[in-house]
Amino acid sequence: MAETTNKHHEPEQDNSAHVSHERSDIDIFQVAGYGIGMVICCLVVVVMVWGMFAYLGKREDAVNAPNPPAMTKDRQLLPPEPRLSGVSKGTAALPELPKVELEELRNSEDALLTSYGWVDTTKGTVRVPVAVAIDMLATKGLPSRPSPAGANGGYRSIPSDASGGRTLEKISQ
User: Fold this and answer.
1) Which of 28, 76, 118, 162 is buried deepest, with most CB atoms within 10 A?
2) Distance between CA 82 and CA 98 in Å, rounded?
3) pLDDT tens profile 6-60
4) Which residues pair with 8 in a beta bridge?
């Protein structure tokens, strides 16, 4: 009774000659002919579109005369101001690369952020490096304005975690 066999799980080997796939479902010559026909049609369309562009280009050139020589002689090599990038320090023949411009900009900004300097000498405003400003703020602290003990009837408003609104807390004296 506890005997198990693996008879149902193994496929049966059938080596008969009449077992094969159907050869009448698809005709390989028709499929290949259809594919070749599609390729030929695509090539014909490409040639037709190329010819149409050439014809329309010649027609536009005939309608619109080229620029007179006086106009091309006075043509500027550089675009009018403001120039966005590329030729601010370079010349039209050798424009400065945007990577170089970006590196110079970052270096100048880093120099401002890591050095001391005057912002306004008349008002006595100075610029300090960011690391020094963080240390000064950490030791000195942010300015705060304590609420008077008697204001709002002895209560102060604090933000509530649950509602995001304000709740009142009794000030202990």
Assistant:
1) 118
2) 16
3) 555 555 666 666 666 666 778 889 999 999 999 999 999 999 999 999 999 999 9
4) none
